[in-house]
Amino acid sequence: MSRDPNRLPPLDLLVAFEAVARQGSITRGAAERFVTQSAMSRQIAALESELGTPLFQRRHRALALTDAGRQLLAACTPVLAQLREVVAAIRAPLSRTVLSLTTTPSFAALWLIPRLAGFTREHPGVDVRLDASFERRDLVREGFDLAVRYGPLAQAEGRRLFGEAIVPVCSPALRRQAGAPLATPADLAQHTLLQVANAQPGGMPLEWESWLRAAGAPQVQPRSMLTFNNYNETIAAALAGQGVALGRRPLIDALLRKRQLVVPFGGATDTERVYSLLLAPAAQARPAALAMADWLVAQTAG
């Protein structure tokens, strides 16, 4: 007897397939679903038998979706996301709302986290899950509502929040240090420059080279340089008085207002990088996500 082509497979098999396809691994999909690897393998085999076609190509230590698998995943992802949201609303209409936002570590630490209490205070019952990562998350596949991206203006997506300008900054104590003035770019020859690791092999850091050239002092060579893996560490070293950093405004504006950092000389130089806000398609129908987006935009105007 032929199968009814309109008959849907069991939902648990579709959920298992979506987890494995999203994770790219039966082992990780099984861990997410709290089942054994062998049980997950049987569920995938059962679904492939039900559909009469393979969904994955088994490769050495890897899985790849077949054309049928890609088609099924494209349908499963939004449908299961909507089902989960509706079921959660039915089960617990008074439960708390969780918003997930992904951004860079420096934006999170220097700009967002100091302000975040204001959002939670204005929106009781809304919990925020913050992912601070250098990885560019896929909002739909990884379940994020919003993202604040940082990158070149020419590649920016979504709504622009603000641009960026760089300016030399140091601790007030370093600026007052006897015997080593910090009044002009030429004085950097007596100081340590703080920098984030970049691809330039040796020589002057890329951002410092650009700033010094704009300041009319491209020949200046510092006493020494300290290099860090990320911008947060660079600013922490500047706060500790270990040298002069290039402050990225507006990320460091709060530290300037509190006089924890000062601008010893020179003006800000605009870069070609911007911060922009993206909402996942499903988040555009969520009042809490829209409220956070409006709040972020309002904060950039303050």
Structure description:
The strands form three sheets. A six-stranded mixed sheet has the order 4-3-5-10-6-9. The protein has a two-stranded antiparallel ribbon with strand order 1-2. Strands 7-8 form a two-stranded parallel ribbon. β1 (56-59) and β2 form a beta hairpin. The chain starts with 10 loop residues before the first helix and ends with a helix. The protein has helices at residues 11-23, 26-33, 37-51, 67-91, 105-122, 139-142, 172-175, 206-214, 231-239, 253-257, 287-301, and strands spanning 56-59, 62-65, 97-103, 126-132, 146-152, 159-169, 192-196, 224-228, 245-249, 269-279. The mean pLDDT is 88. It is an alpha/beta fold. The relative contact order is 0.14. α1 crosses α3, α1 crosses α4 and α2 crosses α3. The protein has three domains: 11-91, Arc Repressor Mutant, subunit A, CATH 1.10.10; 97-162 and 274-301, D-Maltodextrin-Binding Protein, domain 2 (3-Layer(aba) Sandwich), CATH 3.40.190; 164-270, D-Maltodextrin-Binding Protein, domain 2, CATH 3.40.190.
| Major sheet: arrangement of strands | 4-3-5-10-6-9
Structural class: alpha/beta
How does the overall form come out from the CA principal axes? elongated
CATH structural class of the largest domain: Alpha Beta
How many helices does DSSP assign?
A: 11
Distance between the termini: 69 Å
Major beta-sheet overview: 6 strands, mixed
Taken together, the total number of domains comes to 3
CA-based gyration radius? 25 Å
Report the sheet-strand fraction: 15-25%
The helix/strand order is HHHEEHEHEHEEHEHEHEHEH
Overall pLDDT metric: 88
Q: What is the architecture of the largest domain at the second tier of CATH?
A: 3-Layer(aba) Sandwich
Number of strands: 10
Query: How would you name the CATH homologous superfamily of the largest domain?
Result: Periplasmic binding protein-like II
CATH topology of the largest domain: D-Maltodextrin-Binding Protein, domain 2
Q: Helix amount, in percent?
A: 40-55%
**Poorly predicted tracts of residues:** none
